[in-house]
Amino acid sequence: MTLIQLSGVNKHFGDYHALRDIDLEIQQGEFFSLLGPSGCGKTTLLRTIAGFEDVGSGSIRIDGRDMKGVGPNLRPTNMVFQSYAIFPHLSVAENVGFGLRRADMTRDEKTRAVGEALEMVGLGGYGGRAANALSGGQRQRVALARALILKPKVLLLDEPLSALDKKIREQMQVELIKLQREVGITFILVTHDQEEALVMSDRIAVMFDGGIGQMDDPETLYRRPRSKRVAQFIGMMNFLDGEVAATGTEIEVTVQGLGRCSVAAEQAPGAVAPGPVSIGIRPETLSLLFEGETTTRKEVAAVVDEVVYYGDMTYYDVRVDGIEKPLTLSMKNLIGRPVLDVGTQTRVAWDERSLVLLGH
Ligand SMILES: Nc1ncnc2c1ncn2[C@@H]1O[C@H](COP(=O)(O)OP(=O)(O)OP(=O)(O)O)[C@@H](O)[C@H]1O
């Protein structure tokens, strides 16, 4: 069921066009992310859904109701901010219960609701603690519990994990996904961290310059980016020049350094026409062939140009005749498999099926 529907939403700040013709639908129970570089309009879009910003044109409907003129406190949404504003002089329970202060509930009911909300975020038993005696991760949980206790239909999260260090952030990501599945509330997350978006979301809208560049599930976004811009923003991608000779169910294309290829139409998610084209190939779809190794895939001669060792993986940049920039590829480090030195002559296995045609 569609819970949130934006049609033709535009927003200006003076002369600045902050949101451009935004159309999107978010389903009940969906974990939806807005992802994009700094300044692309993610927070502005979230704030228009929350009702903190008016829209210039277009409409926002939540749960079938037009939100025009409906203030933030009357919308079925609740927002959790990056700078989790908790009150340091109050206890954890008082912080979480803050939103219920005007609710028509008995003291006992409120205490029970606070206890349940704290359990939900893994802080059961912490109610009596002073809020200023909590770690960053625990504070973030308090902020979440405070939002969840109001049982909103939609929880809006503006970079809620960005202040946490890497380990805790990854742990909180997993916990947030679990929590979202348990409570069944629709989550809309703003993030500039593509890994975070890929890990957590059912669907992602990638935003550039106030508009939506592509909206898809994480796998489609990663495997089938519709433009060079999206491909560049999500994960690591090698770009090669090519020339499309013919289109149809199979596309005939000549790829710089790799020669003539035939790819399926689904490998060109954006529009392609005969003529020059940009082609993407992910590092993990290329592999080095070690001495004596054979392959049923295609192969091309290469020279190791750069080696970056990551423990479980090694990233190599390799030079291939006919391609100006080195290709980046990643190899899992297995026992008995050597890490090659710069200057080693080697071969790279590749596959026509992993090429993505990215338009002109
Ligand atoms: N109240 C405002 N008045 C004027 N300009 C604004 C206002 N709020 C946002 N902007 C501008 O609108 C653009 C989008 O801002 P927004 O905060 O939505 O970006 P963002 O994608 O969330 O970026 P970040 O990841 O850096 O938070 C920016 O160029 C910003 O300077």
UniProtKB/TrEMBL annotation:
Keywords recorded for this protein, A-Z: ATP-binding, Nucleotide-binding, Transport
The species this protein was found in: Salibaculum griseiflavum
Protein name per Swiss-Prot or TrEMBL: Fe3+/spermidine/putrescine ABC transporter ATP-binding protein
Domain ABC transporter: 4-234
N-terminal signal peptide: none
Assigned GO CC terms: ATP-binding cassette (ABC) transporter complex
Molecular function (Gene Ontology), one example: ATP binding
Keyword Cytoplasm: no
Keyword Nucleotide-binding attributed: yes
One GO-annotated biological process of the protein: putrescine transport
